[in-house]
Amino acid sequence: MAFFLLFFLSLLASSATACDRCLHQSKASYFSKASALSTGACGYGSLALDISGGHLAGGVASLFKNGAGCGACFEIRCKNPSVCNKKGTRVVLTDDLSHNNETDFVLSSRAFSAMAQKGKGQQILKLGIVDIEYKRVPCNYQNQNLAVRVEESSKNPDYLAIKFLYQGGQTEIVAVDVAQVGSSNWSFMSRNNGAVWDTNRVPTGALQFRLVVTAGYDGKWIWAKNVLPSDWKNGVIYDSGLQITDIAQEGCSPCDDSIWS
Q1: Burial class, 215, CB count within 10 angstroms (exposed 0-12 / middle 13-18 / buried 19+)
Q2: Tens place of pLDDT for every residue, the chain, 261 residues?
Q3: Residues with Cβ < 8 Å from 185, sequence gap 6 or more?
Q4: Where in the chain does DSSP place strands (E)?
Q5: Cα 238 from Cα 152, distance rounded (Å)
Q6: For residue 187, what are the β-bridge partners?
Q7: Cα–Cα distance measured from residue 163 to residue 250, given in angstroms and rounded to the nearest whole number
Q8: Who contacts 148 (Cβ-Cβ below 8 Å, separation ≥6)?
Q9: What span is annotated as the signal peptide, if there is one (predicted)?
Q10: 81 prior amide bond cis, ω within 30
């Protein structure tokens, strides 16, 4: 167990390119239809609208992180004082913009216009692209636990594909194992694409999961002890019974986000 934890965390550390908790400067544009982002590389589909209230974003490769960044929350503020408010907007990452070389983010029009001063929503949309500052923030789903959705491609009992929804805190899931409830015979799952994990080695019976998540300067196991019933069904969302509240800290120089106020 310790070997796999260190292995996955070493992969994560080698791919880290910036301090998520720091304030960054970039640009943002928008898509007129939120469906362009909800159907994006993370694979959330229409559920993206439920977990974010339509405040969606696609991010560049350093934010998407080969799918590990799916579901991450960011606060974004426009820097044009004649059009934009000081509060900005909060978004959930749902798509990959690795091909984009103009902006770090493409937002849904709802999220983009939320950065505007009252009555200036159409004005900011006409700009099309704006200078921004942004930082990653913890996701807070209040009374909603981390949930597991069984994907339509799953075939009980031979193949299981899942994705995690409503992930709180400020972490990334970097490994997933599955086992029959009460068993210590764990099978690892692979990241299929975006937020989707799958395996062809599906244990029989009711299923439990354990996750390796970034936490503090290291990582830790999260154990969801009884999640899927033995007769789990495709398309159904199951409550994990727990929530992630950790905030990962990168081992980099301290950053000053005091100007964000």
Answers
A1: buried
A2: 444 444 444 444 434 445 666 899 999 999 987 777 878 899 999 898 888 888 999 999 999 999 999 999 999 999 999 999 999 999 999 999 987 778 999 999 999 999 999 999 999 999 999 999 999 999 999 889 999 999 999 999 999 999 999 999 999 999 999 999 999 999 999 999 999 999 999 999 999 999 999 988 888 999 999 999 999 999 999 999 999 999 988 766 666 655 555
A3: 179, 203
A4: 24-31, 56-59, 73-78, 89-96, 105-108, 129-137, 147-150, 160-165, 173-180, 187-193, 196-199, 207-215, 218-228, 237-239
A5: 14
A6: 178
A7: 25
A8: 162, 163, 164, 165, 209, 224, 227, 228, 237, 238, 240
A9: 1-18
A10: no
Q: What single string gives the DSSP state of each residue in 91-111?
A: EEEEEE-TT-SS-SEEEEHHH
Query: Distance between CA 161 and CA 85 in Å, rounded?
Result: 42
Cβ atoms of residues 190 and 66 within 8 Å: no
In Å, what is the CA distance from 202 to each residue of 41, 48, 62, 211, 221? 25, 27, 32, 16, 20
Q: Which residues pair with 179 in a beta bridge?
A: 208
For residue 10, give the 3-state DSSP assignment: helix
Q: Vertex 122, ends 121 and 125: CA angle to 5°?
A: 90
For 189, 228, 230, 239, the CA distances from 207, given in Å and listed in that order, are 13, 5, 7, 12
Alpha-carbon separation of residue 102 from 97, 131, 157, 172 (angstroms): 10, 11, 45, 26
